[in-house]
Amino acid sequence: MGARHQQHAGIHRFGVPLKNTLVYYGDVFHTLLHLPIHRFVAIFFSIYIAEYCLFALLYLWQPDDCIEGVRHFANALWFSVQTASTIGYGKMAPSQHCPGANSVVMVQAITSSLVDYCMMGVVFARFSSPSKRALSMRFSDSACIHRGPDGLWRLSFRLANMRKHLLMQPNVQVLLGVPDGPGRSSFAFEELKLEGLLSSLTNIKLGLAATLTHVIDAGSPLWRLSVADMAACGMELLVFLDGVDSTSSTIQVGW
C-alpha cells in the first residue's frame, strides 16, 4: 500500500484585519527576504527609480544657473542617476555658489549609499539563504506501508541528499497530525518512532540515501488503521529534517 505525498502551499490566513497586516511593513528585511523573486526584482528596481526621480525633482527646483546642463526633468533625472552612482561624466555639475543644490547632492550621496548597503545586504541574504540548500534534500514522492519479515506492518519513505556537500548533525522527526478542532483549525500531534534511526542518520551524514521506517505495532498510533481510515479522519504525516551545512548554516526541510 502507498500514500502519495501532497505538497501544500502553506498556511492560508483569512479574516485578518487590515491593521494587523502592517506587521509586514514593520519587518521589511524579512518581507523582502521571502518575497517571490519576480516581486523582489520589481521592488528592487522601484526603490532605485523612486530615489532617482525624487532627487531629480529637487534638482529641477533649483535656480537655472545652479546646475550646469539641467534645464528639463530628463536632464535632472540623468544628473540624479550620475550623482547616486558616482559616474561623473563631467558635463553636468552643481555650482559652488548654490549651497542649496550642493546640499541636495550631499543628501543624495548619503541616501544612495544607505540604499545600496541595504539592498546589497538583502540580495546577499537571499543568495546565501539556507532554504536554497534545503531544496537539495529530496524526499520520495510516496510513503509506503509494507509488511516486514517479522509480520509487522511498516511505514517507510526515502530521503536523499542531491548534493555532494555533507550534512552535519542531521536529525529527523516524524509527526502524525490529527485534526482536533472545528474545520481542521488545529491539530493534535504525536511523534512516530523510527526503526534503525542511527543507521538512517549516518547514511544522511555520509551523503547516502536513507530509508526511514516506522514500525506499526501495538504502541503505534497507526495500529489497526488503514490508509482509507487515515484519509477519512484527515490525518497528515509531517517530516522535519534538521542539520548543519558545511557553511555552518542550519537548515530545516519539511515534507
TrEMBL record:
Source organism: Monoraphidium neglectum
Family: Belongs to the inward rectifier-type potassium channel (TC 1.A.2.1) family.
Bilayer-crossing regions: 40-61
Ion transport keyword on record: yes
Membrane topology, as annotated: Multi-pass membrane protein
InterPro entries tied to this protein: Ig_E-set (IPR014756), IRK_C (IPR041647), K_chnl_inward-rec_Kir (IPR016449), K_chnl_inward-rec_Kir_cyto (IPR013518), Kir_TM (IPR040445)
UniProt entry keywords in alphabetical sequence: Ion channel, Ion transport, Membrane, Potassium, Potassium transport, Transmembrane, Transmembrane helix, Transport, Voltage-gated channel
Short name of one Pfam family: IRK
Protein name as catalogued: ATP-sensitive inward rectifier potassium channel 1
Span of domain Inward rectifier potassium channel C-terminal: 137-252
Single Gene Ontology MF annotation: inward rectifier potassium channel activity
GO cellular component entries: monoatomic ion channel complex; plasma membrane
Superkingdom, taxonomy of origin: Eukaryota
Biological processes, Gene Ontology terms: potassium ion import across plasma membrane; regulation of monoatomic ion transmembrane transport
Protein's cellular compartments: Membrane
First-listed, main subcellular location of the protein, grouped into a coarse class: membrane
